[in-house]
Amino acid sequence: MTQRPFLIGSEIYRTSSYGRRHPLAIPRVSAALDLIRAMGWLEEAQYVDSPRATPEQLARFHAPDYIAAVLQAEADQQVPAEKRARYNIGCNGNPVFPEIFRRPATACGGTLRAVELLRDGGTVYSPAGGTHHGQPDRASGFCYFNDPVLGILAMLDRGLTRIYYVDVDAHHGDGVQDAFADDDRVFTLSIHESGRWPYTGKAEDRAGGSALNLPVPAGFNDSEMASLFDDVVLPLAARLQPEAIVLQGGADGLADDPMSGLGLSNRALWRVVSSLMGRAPRLLVLGGGGYNPWAVARCWAGVWAVLNGIDPAAPPTPAAEAVLRGLWWNRSQGREPPERWLTTIADAPREGAVRDEVRALAAAAMGSTDVVGAES
Ligand SMILES: [Zn+2]
After folding, report:
1. CA-CA to 66 of 20 to 30 Å: which in 96, 122, 206, 299?
2. Of these residues, 132, 133, 171, 192, which one is catalytic?
3. Residue 248 C-alpha to ligand 1 middle, in angstroms?
């Protein structure tokens, strides 16, 4: 239990791309890892190179014909119209690219390796994981395979019976909620922006009692995130007494992210991480969305620092500043990045009033009789 955290990565995230114009055509995992190393926050013994999940491993959740279609797309570098429609690949943000199988399969392999490392307890961070929209038989929302689901299934296969999945990505964790909607061993909680794609995860959606959804308004600030954790997420952890917590730590809820209207600083996500530490014998932290390379790299590097008991609100070392100055973003905001993206790791706090609608979400969630462990 005193084992130091492990960090799982792979060079495939540096050398592959979804294509120039895709929102994910930015350095994310590689940038975070470079920043972590440049800050001196990683002992090499903590680093684990990710294996690639095999088609057989993926078939624990995904349909064999779908897996075969993704493999074929990698071989052919194109998808016939019939399969495009059937599997949602080659369209709708799920492009065919040279590593269309290998890259997502590596993210799944990393999460499965994490579950092995967590067998007797501990903490693992796999920032390439968190592809929470992946469906059993089709791609969705830039996600080809669903590594959180595969990781949780691996935990269940190892005999765990109480797993708490917490998703703070700006988008609803639909694929994970749906996968475990009928499984009382897994409780999924998602905090996401109201009214945003995939438009699921309404507050009244409880997936038969095994899920909780907290759709939050645009402008959601650090104080509001802290209040939802203190009033809902952490009390539920106390009730559940989970054997493992899986955190999907998408960075697209940051104010600097272009894909959501949420207004968080990276300090809010670091508090999310620190508040979940010690609440279960196993903590698996994954990545997720995040579409501003500077925001993602600084946030996720800081997540790793927090997991190691290091204060991430430190000035970047010269090597770290060089990493930040070396990042690029094919968007107008990337042409002249503000100085704070280059010379700081921590954002300024974005505190504010906790709005009534956020308080009402928490009250409704904790007042409902079907919340896990509630006396009724
Ligand atoms: Zn997202």
Report:
1. 206
2. 133
3. 10
